[in-house]
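#struct-pred
JK: can someone run the complex with flavin-adenine dinucleotide? inputs below
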Amino acid sequence: MTDHRASHPLRLQDIAAFDHEADVVIVGCGSSGASAAIAAADAGATVLILEAASAGGGTTALAGGLIYMGCGTPIQKACGFSDTPEAMYEYLIRASGTNADPERVRLYVDGSLAHYDWLLAQGMHFKPEYYPTKNTNTPGDECLIYTGNEACTGFAEHATPVPRGHKGQAMGEGGGSMLMEKLIASARAKGVRILCDTRAQTAIVDHTGAVVGLLARSEGRDIRIAARRAVVLCAGGFIMNTDMVSRHAPWLQNHTTLNGNPNDDGSGICIGLGAGGAAMNMNEGFVCLPFYPPANFVEAIMVDSHGQRFINEDVYHGRMGEAILKRYPERHYMIVDAGHMHDFNRPPLGGFRIIATGDTAEELETELGMPADTLAHTIALYNRHAREGRDPLFRKHTDYLRPLEPPYAACEVTPGSGAFFPVFTLGGLRARATGEVLTEDGQAVPGLFTAGRNSCGLPRSGAGYSSGMSIGDATFFGRLAGASAAGSPVRTMPDAR
Ligand SMILES: Cc1cc2nc3c(=O)[nH]c(=O)nc-3n(C[C@H](O)[C@H](O)[C@H](O)COP(=O)(O)OP(=O)(O)OC[C@H]3O[C@@H](n4cnc5c(N)ncnc54)[C@H](O)[C@@H]3O)c2cc1C
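RT: done, structure tokens with the ligand placed:
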């Protein structure tokens, strides 16, 4: 397993010769690395990607492939939605939470339409079709879907709700692998070389502290790679490194399912730390509790072990997952009613089991071991308000407000109860939006750039995360980092072997 500490850099003066060289050397061939490579090649740089796996793709290729874009993309317009930069900016700032980076959000919003065009130029195709039902992704090859909390209380009052999740034309969860095929093909067509089975180990720095190359392990031997202009770290997050997770984000360990590829082990972050960079937001992560689809389950209520609601149940599954994991080890239940029973032919994606039933709310309450008149009172109050078409306690959207009718059942959704809680990390190297890795003092580390989950990028908060923000961030800011790296000054190096 990769050490969680900074990877100590090698000194240029101790390197006799290099095995490979390029203007820009990129670590990792996921969506951030491939996008950086394309942008650097477009800027005229020679580009080499080092990829630890036997093929490019990374976590991105495992993903559903949703990309968060707005401001009136051709797909939004074709599907009848009108979006504005103001609404998208306001939503993203609120979604970012206390650690928001307004400059980064501004760039992302203002560049969103151009980013859509850039994806088309890489061979992506988006089908102008909206999928209207609440889901974790579009089940067919539809493009547009709500992927966050845009229509939920806390957001909808401040920014007109609009769907911004865009999936390239691929069936179901195939969007990520399709995106990676297109990006890698585009990069290769521009002359980018990809060295697979090659794991970057540490940076090589010159006497000024500038990063001028990398030491890597390739097919059983150490190799040295010269980066004439810059290195771009795009090696993903650290969810597969249990040591780093326990040190930086211990709350993410509680009975969750690690959600990444085996190389999501923080090695890129460690290389950046060793070269003088700082890390930030390392305690943040995306935690998902897929209690839908089917969308009918959004009509259920979520309660704690005292029978009390704590959230508007129409939230995005990430906001729900975070709320429950942060209350661990408190036990939580999804309370369903007669109307949901047939839905268990196709249980919620999270794989919940019914653990208690009751012909009345009181019976269910007793079976769950709750104090008398706690859950029964919650259901009665919820029903009374739902009949009036309102939820004054948590302001759940009226689309999902329906009185719950007996008989009732409870599914346990406590982490560790068998419910599925996939997670990935949102912390990484501190960087400018243009990719320069920053020290604790806020100075740029010369010759070092980063993007994607290797960095602390656009998605700053699990509670505000919308699907598409990570790949949107990785591709958008990957491009900026690649272009910046290609514009870095050339450094003189010993000859490559
Ligand atoms: C099941 C699933 C579904 C998801 N769905 C979505 C979605 O629909 N939309 C969305 O926005 N996000 C989604 N995500 C999250 C998203 O996929 C990732 O956060 C994002 O793809 C990360 O991109 P990246 O370029 O930073 O990293 P990656 O795509 O993981 O690429 C990093 C690459 O670096 C390589 N690497 C690592 N260490 C080294 C090293 N030392 N040397 C050389 N190479 C190295 C890795 O092998 C990998 O190929 C999903 C995640 C999962 C697991």
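RT: quick notes.
The mean pLDDT is 94.
Residues 469-486 form the longest helix (18 residues).
JK: thanks, will look after standup
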